[in-house]
Amino acid sequence: MSFLLTLFGLTVGVIVARMIEYLIRRPYIDNITKDKYVFITGCDTGFGNKLAKQLDIMGVHVIAACLTEKGRTDLDDVTSDRVKTLILDVTDHESVLRAYEELKKIIPHKAALWGVVNNAGISNLAGYLEWTRREDYEKVLAVNLFGVVDVTLTFLPLLKESSGRLVNVASSAGRVSALPGGYCESKFAVEAFSDAVRRERKHFGYLFKVSIIEPGFFATPLASKDNLSRSVTAAWERLSDVQKKEFPESMLHEFVDEKSSLISSMATTDLSKVTDVIEHALFSKWPKTRYAVGWDAKMVWVPMSYMPSWIQDRLCP
Fold this sequence. Notes:
Layout: H1 2-25, E1 36-40, H2 46-58, E2 61-66, H3 69-78, E3 83-87, H4 93-106, E4 112-118, H5 134-144, H6 146-162, E5 165-169, H7 183-204, E6 209-215, H8 225-237, H9 241-246, H10 249-266, H11 272-283, E7 290-293, H12 295-305, H13 309-315
Parallel strand pairs: 1-2, 1-4, 2-3, 4-5, 5-6, 6-7
Helix pairs in contact: 2-11, 4-6, 5-7, 8-10
């Protein structure tokens, strides 16, 4: 009986604590539409595209960076004059510097860069470990890690001036590593980099805040079966004849079918679940350090990250 009472007390305590946290974090800052600008990378499709449109509807001034002219034009066609678009390749330092200079020209004298959302990312799943090559890791890290680092370091002076927000889109794959190829590795690194920035900020007394977004599987182009099949097939086709005997083509198809089935069974179609928490991280008076988003992130990946390694090894798909 005492055990049940203790369990009941703990449950009630957790519920009350979460309710108090919700009420504390609910209020937004003032004047989010007046003199505050938000810079978002990776706005061609997916979360970045959705976020730019969402903030535009709210009346927020947005500077949306796209990789392609098509992405830029498509976004211009469906947004108001509050959204200014520019071209940015986060793997090219000169492109980052050009974006920085262009942004400074866009923002009026009495306004400020309030938020930087590092959203640009790619997935280059290359199958099993022996199917991968060094360049697979380099390609993903160039966008998902070094792009985040470069944009952050370049735009940091403006965030320090505004005491604004740095929001880095990582992944629940930054909590639990399932497969090689660079994606999980890059997201673990984004988590570590974000933690380092947040702690150094506190050390020097800077007032800007740092938040990490950890989506689970979502129905974006990044997680599509076509994207998965294309990248894994390209990796398998590079194998030598000897390796293809060890890993026959049937294994390639099994891998694609198995992983795409897993993703589709877990994937959430409502992208606003992610953009809503990014909005909160940008404008809440008391944003969270980490936002786990999606039922699989909250019920599977984050809980699994606290388990002993031997349990993770058994549970990981």
